[in-house]
Amino acid sequence: MFFLHLSDMHFGMNPNGGEDETGLAVRSNYMNVLANLIYEINQKKKIDFILVTGDIAWRAASKDYAKAEKWLKDILERCKLLPERVFVCPGNHDVERDFVEQLEFPRAQNIADKYLRIEKLDELGMRFKHYTEFFHQMGLEEYTIGSRKSPLVGIRNMADFRVICLNTAWYAKGNEVKDRMWVGSGFMEVIKRELSECKKKPTIVIMHHPNTSWNEEERCDFGHNTNVFKEICEMADIVLSGHTHETNGLNINAGNALVVSGGALYQDKHYPHCFYAYEINFDAANCEQKRIRYYYSSGQWDSKEEKITLPGNNRWKRTESGEKANEDNQIAETAALEQEEDIVTQSNLFCIAGKTIRFLPIICSWNHGEDEYYFGDVVTNIKNASYKMPSDIYECFLQTADAPEDILENVYEEKVRIDNYSVKIMGGNNPHQLIFDFSRVKYKDFLIVKSVMDQQLASGATVRSKYFNYKHSLITSWLPNICGVGIFIITSDNKILISKSSKNVAVNPERYIYTASGSMNWADEKTNPFCDIIRECEEEIGYCPDIEKLKLYSFGIDYDTGYYQFSFYEKSDKTAEELMENASMARDFHIELQKIIAVDFHYKAVWKLISENEWDETAKANLITLMVKNFSKRIVEKHIDPNRKKKNFRHQVIQEWERRAQREGCLAVLSNRYPAVHISQISEDYYKKVISFIDDNLSDKTVIEIGGGIGLFTKYFAEHAKSITCVDVSKGMLQRNRDFLGEQLAKKVNYVNCFFQDYQEDIHFDLLICSLVLIHNADELQEIVWNMRRMADTIYLFEHVEDGAQVSRYTEPKTKNEYINLFPEFDVEKTDSHMLFTDHIACIKLVRSI
Q: What is the mean pLDDT of residues 329-340?
C-alpha cells in the first residue's frame, strides 16, 4: 500500500501576519505548487489513502477550514480518491481556544480519566466545533468508539488495514503543551476491547502530539498508572504524529511499532516544510519511507528515500500456514490480554491492611461523616428502556450452562439497572448531590451473565475480559448492571445487627451479609434505593427504618458478579433485642435468612466475626468501611494485622521517589498539583523563606538534612555550614543532588541512602533540617521523630499543615500543634508560615529545653 502522511497545514496562517495580501498570495501560491506535486506523485504511483495528523487550521476558525476543505477536495478530485480514503485527527490549532482557556490542565491520570471517557464525548466535542463541521463538510467517515461514532477518536476498519485516531489535543491551549497533553486511558480501554474482537490486520495510529508532549503518567511506567504510549506501540504497526515540525522524522522503534513524528506542511518561510510518502508491503514487512522536503526560500522540492524495517514484522510475514499462524497468535495475545486486564482491574479493588476484597468502591470514603447522603441528596432519573443482552453472551450461556431451563423458565422479575451516575456540586451544607439514571432489567439476564462471567466466548475472550473492565468506565452498556441495596443497623445499645443468608438465595447463599439486603425491584417512577432498602427491611426483618435517619455511605460493584450495591446504615432508637424479636415474624425472614445476630459495635468484635466466617464480599467490604469511618483506618488496620510489616509500604515509597527523581526541575520535589508554568517561582519563593527563617550562624555548625531531594538546600548548607549530612531514601534523588552541587561541593557532603528512621549512627548534630518530610511518612512517624529528637538540639521543621486533609495517597498532613506536640522536650523558639501555592506551610524552630 502507498499512502501520504500530511501534518500541520495551518490553513489561515499568514507568513507576514494579519491579513497582509502579499503574505496570503505567497501562501496560496505555495499550496497550489504543493497540490501539483501531490498530483505528480499520484501519477507515478497511485495513492491509496491520505493521513492528516492535525493542525488543519491556524485558529480553528470556519474560514480557515473552508480553505482547507477546498484544497483537500481539489486533491481528492485530481487524484481520484474518495473522502473515505482520508483519515484526519485534530491538533492543538484545531481547538477553539476561547473555550479551553478556562480549563485547568489535569495533573494526574485519575483526574484526566474522569473527563476523557465516552460519556463525556458530546461535552468534549464542543472544543472542536468548527473542526467537526469541516470533518462532515469533507464527507469523511467517522470513527467508531464503543457504541458511538465520532470525528475525534476511535477506529476505522478498512478491508486490508485499520486506522486508529487518537486525540491528544483535548486540553491544548496556547503553546503550553509539553508534559500536559492527555490521550485518555479510558478511551484506550474501549479501543483495546474492540481490537480484541476484530480480525488482526495492519494497524496505523494517527495523533497530533508525539508522546514527548504527553503527561508522564501516560508515557511512563509508575506502577499505579496506565502507560498509554506502551499500549499504543503494542497494538500498532506504525504510529504517526505531527506538531514538532520535524524534517528528520524522529523515527524510533517502540514495541511492535515504527513511531514517526512528521513535519509541517506549512508554517512560514523559516521552516523547511515537508511531508511523507510510505510504500509498505506488510507481507514482507519492509517499509520504504519516501521523505519529501520543501525549502520555501529556494522554491524547490528535495526528496530523499530510505528503507526502514518495521519492528513487528513477524506479525505479518506469511508462512506456509500463514492465516493459522496469525489466528494462533491472536488467541495467545488475547489470553495474555485477558490475564493482564484481570490483574489491572483487580488493582482497583477494596484493600485494607494488605488484604484485598473483591469489591470495587465507586462512591465511598473512609473519613468520618464524609460522602454520606440523605434521601434528599439523591436524585433518580427513570428511563422507560430495557436491557438487551449481547448475542455472544447468550450463545455462550446456552452452550455452557448446566441447566439453562432453570433460569430461562422460572425467573421473571423485573429489577433495576443502572445506566449512569453523576455528582453535582451544590455548595452549602450539602455540598454534593448524587444523580442516578435507572432503567429496567430482567433478573434472569443478571443470572445468565453471572453464570458465564468467566466462560470463553466464540472470539476467545471471556465475558469478563470483554465487557467487565471497570478501571476506566465504571458503568458498562453491555451488562445487566443490576442494582441491590443493603443496610447495617446500629442499635441504641451500641450493637450492630448482622444476618446470614439462607441456602435459598441465588447470590452468595449461606454467608454473612448485611442486616437486610436484596436486589432492587422495578417500581417505575417510584424507583429509588432509599425506598427499596426500607422495603427490604420490612420484608426480611419486620422493621421500618426512619427515612430521615437513613444514610447512604457507599456505592460500588461486586467484582465477581457485576452487581451494583448501595450500602446504608441507620442508628436506630430500638435495642438489639427489640429488633431481633420482631425479625423472625417478617414475611421473608425464613426464606431469605438463616439467622440474625447482634455484635458489639466495636472494631474488635466485628473483625472477629468477619475473620472467622464466610462472607458476602460486598457486605464485608462495606462493614469494614463502616468500622473505619467510626474508629479510623489506622486503628482498624493495626487490629486486623498487628504484626503487619512495612516492607510493602516502604517499597512503594521508594518507587514513588525514584519516579519523582525522573521529573524535570523542581517538579521532582514539589507537588504536581502546582501549576508547572509557575513552578520555578513557587520553588524560589519557598527556598528564600526557608533560608531566611534559619537564623543560626552556620559556620561552626554541623547539620543533618532529612530528605535532601535535588539539593536546593543541601547546596546552601554545604557552602555555609561546618559539615552537612544528607539523608534520602532515593538513590535517584541523591544523584540529582550531587549533580546539582557539582563535583567539588558534593565532596563536602556526607550522603546517606536510607530511611531516616533506620539511620542509627551515634552522631550528634547542632542543627537538624526537615522540610516537607513528615507529611510523607505517616506510617512510621513516631520512629522518625524519635530519631530526630535524639540527634540534634535544634530542629528546623517546615511542614504542610491542614486539619486532616489528605492531598495524595502518600501524604497525611497534621496541624501545627500536632507537630509541635511530637517534640515534648523541645521549646518552640519561633514560628512563621508560608503559602506554597495553595498549601499552608508551618515554619517551626524547636530548641531542646535546658
A: 40
